[in-house]
Amino acid sequence: xxxxxxxxxxxxxxxxxxxxxxxxxxxxxxxxxxxxxxxxxxxxxxxxxxxxxxxxxxxxxxxxxxxxxxxxxxxxxxxxxxxxxxxxxxxxxxxxxxxxxxxxxxxxxxxxxxxxxxxxxxxxxxxxxxxxxxxxxxxxxxxxxxxxxxxxxxxxxxxxxxxxxxxxxxxx
Length: 172
What we know:
Layout: H1 23-31, H2 33-36, H3 51-66, H4 78-88, H5 123-131, H6 149-159
């Protein structure tokens, strides 16, 4: 059958999505996936609904997903951001993503854009994802980099450095 020739990408695991992703991002994504994350493979399955009906369905889906976890927040430390910048540029991130250094550097030919991760993730949520990306994205392109919890948190701190930064060490 022709349908068996199509390779299907596994959906992300949503079991604890609300412990990783900010609620406001999830609401926007459900309402219009392409506008929220250009290039996403998530179809806008609600596009055919009238605006008021779509809003109701989005809210219902959101409330269902909100039962999957509770968002915890934390702010990156200056030291974590500095360590994370070094790690981001040395452990393999720049094999797929553009360098995020202040000095001009050439971009990766087929770079996967990161956008503004702080719109989607909390520090604990991105740390969890970086430590084991395949746990929630079974068919994802992000490889498991064998990061320690501290390394994952430092890279997350660097990627979320537009959040409020605290000056002291938060952990070692």
